[in-house]
Amino acid sequence: MRQLIPLTLMALVSATQAIAACAGDDVRTRLSAAERLEVTTAAAATPYGSGTIWTATRGDDRITIAGTMHLYDPRLAPIAVQLSPAITAADLLLVEAGPEEEAAMADAIASDPSLLFLTDGNSLTDLMEPEAFIALSRAVEARGLPAAAAAQMQPWYLSLTLAMPTCALADLQQGRQGLDAKLIDIALAADIDVQAVEPWDTIFSLMSADPIDDQIDALNLSFMPEDLANAMNATMLDSYFSGEIAELWELSRVVSRQVPGLAPEEADTLFAQMEDDLLTRRNLDWMPVIANAAEAHDTIVLAVGAGHLPGAQGVLRLLETDGWTITPGL
């Protein structure tokens, strides 16, 4: 699979004093009438397509489900306050990555440079066409990363970096946290156990699985125009806070066709592959973990990227299939 990594995935699936600088027009204004209809029709047909907070019950067991935003936004603070009583009353907080996973990842990166860097003697200056590397250099330097350093990095990791507009990086660099981290802090302060639904290296394994040539091809196609990236970022944030998650996902699918150098048909194929690898397969892998947690605990809060909740293979429908009753809100 050649990874196509939209900003939507990074924020919803693994930024604001910067939010004013990150302002952009509504990306829907860049779509044709047919594309807008495609988005709204697909979103309307998506199970559990609207909403970020849900409750699942089965007998005496209860799971509060929060669809999170991984990037920082000041509007996340009231949501954390809203969820705080559910967390402090729970037996367990389930997240994508908790403190143990973050520590394990940091240790692994420190001890194994090959996780993020090319260590076989090659560099991207050798592997990319000169014009493509010049474009890469401009893109990474706009994000404060020297081109010489980027040349030594794994292509898939650079694809993740380039998936973000430059305006969204300041908060990450300054340690401002998304909703997941805020909820973990609430749990730890209340002495509530925190458990991850997957190993720390899941995303690393998925993203690095492709041959290096395929990763290079994907990197060549990662240069979304800055104005389009800013518009997508602004629309993503507004859509998240209005709860229109399925519409946001379908919008990201259609906007991916505007990546320069990528044919619309190829964009759709890549997006579908990415959706299967980074959403559907992970959702399915999480279900036994959630089931085991529910057996051991009466009350759970599950906080994962909002993009994991909707859809026929989304977490909510999978729980429903497993006998849980799903209702919106707390």
TrEMBL record:
Keywords: Signal. InterPro entries: TraB/PrgY/GumN_fam, YbaP-like. The keyword Signal applies. CDD domains: Tiki. Coiled coil: none annotated. Residues 1-20 form the signal peptide. The keyword Signal applies. PROSITE patterns: PROKAR_LIPOPROTEIN. This is TraB/GumN family protein. It comes from Loktanella gaetbuli.
